[in-house]
Write a structure and sequence with these properties.
By secondary structure, the chain is α/β, with parallel strands linked by helices. The protein folds into three domains: about 170 residues, 3-Layer(aba) Sandwich (Rossmann fold), CATH 3.40.50; about 180 residues, Argininosuccinate synthetase, chain A, domain 2, CATH 3.90.1260.10; about 35 residues, no CATH class. Helix content is about 40%, strand content about 20%. The strands form four sheets. A five-stranded parallel β-sheet has the order 3-2-1-6-7, sandwiched between helices. A hairpin with a 2-residue loop joins β8 and β9. α4 packs parallel to α5, α8 crosses α9 and α10 runs antiparallel to α11. The chain is elongated and about 85 Å long.
Length: about 400
C-alpha cells in the first residue's frame, strides 16, 4: 500500500481522514502534528487519537522556535496586518506544510493529506507550499468527497472514531494568535460571547491601574521587556500575558477569504498588537518619510502574500530583503501605556533617531524661517491653476 502523511490536529476533520484514507484511498496513514504553540492538550490529543484510530505512525514535531525566529520576527519587521488584524493562522500554515513535506520525504511517502474543507483558506496555504517543495500528490478527503459536518459525525460514529469534546466554536491557536469562528459568531450582529475568549480579559476585569511597558528592539526584532532580555519564545509569551491581562488584542472583523466569501472572524492577538504597535512607533522615529510611505505599500503586499498562502513566492523573499535593509536602523526603545483595553505609545528613543529637537523647537533659530518663504510661495501651484482656470 502507498504511504500518505496526514497533517493531523486530532479534531473531527483529520480524525475522519485517517479512516477515509485507509478505506476509500487504500493507503497506509502516517499522522503528524506540528507544534507551533498550541495548548498542551492539542499536542497530546492527536498522539492518543492517532494511536486509537490506528495510524501507521504518529509524529509530534516541535517547530515553536523556528516559528518565532523565521516567521513571527519577519512578520514584525513587515508590520504584517491583513484587513485590520495581525496574521497568525496564515503565518503558521507554510511552516506546518514544510514540516509535513520533510516528513513525507523521510518516510518515503508519495502523498500528503490534509483535512481542509473547500470553503476556507488553508487548502490554498497547505497545497501551494506542498506542491512547490515536493512531487507528492495532495489528497483532501473532506473537500474531495464533499462531506458535510453531519456526514463526518455519522461516519466517525460508524467507525468508532473518538470525537473531540463538543465545542461551540472552531478555534485555531498558535504562539502569535488565536482565531475563533463558527456557531453564534456566524451572525455578524451577535456580540461575541465572553466564553469565546481565552487570552484577553473583559474590560471590567482588567486592572484599574495603568501599566507602563518598555519594549526594546534591535534591527527590528524585539529582545527585551522593561530592560529584561528574554529568549524569543519567552518574550512572545510574556507579551501575550501582559497585554491580554489589560484586555488588549481583541479583533472582530468581516474578513475577505481567498475564494471571495466574506466571513465573520474573531481574533485574539495581544502580543502581536503590542509588538507591532511598538515597532511602527520606532520606525516613525528612525525612517524617512519616503521609507515609511513605501514601507506601508510593501507591508500591505507582504500581508496579502501571507494571507493568500504564497509564502514560497519569490516576491516574499524580495520583500524580506527590503525589510531587512530598512530594519538596520530600527533599534531603540518604545514606551507604552496599557489600560482598560487601550494601548498608547508614550515615548520612544533610538541612536538612529531622525528627530532634531533643537530644530523643531519654537525657541531655536538654527533653521532660518525666512528661507522657507520661497518654498511656500509656489506650493500647490497646479491646484491654484486648476481653481483659477477650470472653476472659472
Amino acid at each position: 500500500m502507498e504511504k500518505v502523511v496526514l497533517a493531523f490536529s486530532g479534531g473531527l476533520d483529520t480524525s475522519v481522514c485517517i479512516k477515509l484514507l485507509e478505506e476509500k484511498y487504500e493507503m497506509d496513514v502516517i499522522t503528524a502534528c506540528v507544534d507551533v504553540g498550541q495548548p498542551r492538550e492539542e499536542i497530546d490529543r492527536p498522539a492518543s487519537v492517532a494511536d486509537e484510530v490506528g495510524s501507521l505512525k504518529h509524529y509530534t514535531i516541535d517547530a515553536q522556535e523556528e516559528f518565532v525566529e523565521d516567521f513571527i520576527f519577519k512578520a514584525i519587521k513587515a508590520n504584517a496586518i491583513y484587513e485590520g488584524y495581525s496574521l497568525s493562522t496564515a503565518l503558521a500554515r507554510p511552516l506546518i506544510a514544510m514540516k509535513i513535506v520533510e516528513l513525507a520525504k523521510k518516510e518515503g511517502a508519495n502523498a500528503i493529506a490534509h483535512g481542509c474543507t473547500g470553503k476556507g483558506n488553508d487548502q490554498f496555504r497547505f497545497e501551494s507550499v506542498i506542491r512547490s517543495m515536493s512531487d507528492c500528490k495532495v489528497i483532501a478527503p473532506i473537500r474531495d468527497l464533499n462531506l458535510t459536518r453531519t456526514e463526518e459525525m455519522e461516519y466517525a460514529k460508524s467507525c468508532g472514531i473518538p470525537l473531540p469534546a463538543d465545542k461551540h466554536y472552531s478555534i485555531d491557536e498558535n504562539l502569535w494568535g488565536r482565531a475563533i469562528e463558527g456557531d453564534a459568531l456566524e451572525d455578524p450582529m451577535v456580540e461575541p460571547p465572553e466564553d469565546a475568549f481565552s487570552w484577553t480579559q473583559p474590560i471590567e476585569k482588567t486592572p484599574d491601574k495603568a501599566q507602563d511597558l518598555t519594549i526594546e528592539f534591535e534591527k527590528g526584532i524585539p529582545n527585551s521587556i522593561n530592560d529584561e532580555k528574554l529568549f524569543p519564545l519567552d518574550l512572545i509569551s510574556k507579551c501575550n500575558e501582559i497585554a491580554g491581562m489589560h484586555g488588549i488584542g481583541r479583533v472582530d472583523i468581516i474578513e475577505d477569504r481567498i475564494i471571495g466569501l466574506k466571513s465573520r472572524e474573531i481574533y485574539e492577538t495581544p502580543a502581536a498588537l503590542l509588538l507591532i504597535t511598538a515597532h511602527k512607533a520606532l520606525e516613525q522615529l528612525v525612517l524617512t518619510r519616503e521609507e515609511l510611505k513605501f514601507g506601508e505599500i510593501a507591508s500591505n503586499t507582504y500581508s496579502e502574500i501571507i494571507y493568500n498562502g504564497m509564502w514560497h513566492d519569490p516576491l516574499r523573499e524580495d520583500l524580506d530583503q527590503l525589510f531587512d535593509n530598512m530594519q538596520k536602523r530600527v533599534t531603540g526603545q518604545v514606551k507604552l501605556k496599557l489600560h482598560k483595553g487601550s494601548l498608547r505609545v508614550i515615548g520612544r528613543k533610538s541612536p538612529y533617531s531622525l528627530y532634531q529637537e533643537e530644530v523643531v523647537s519654537f525657541e531655536d533659530k538654527a533653521l532660518d524661517q525666512r528661507e522657507i518663504a520661497g518654498m511656500v510661495k509656489h506650493y500647490g501651484i497646479q491646484a491654484a491653476a486648476y481653481n483659477k482656470i477650470c472653476k472659472k
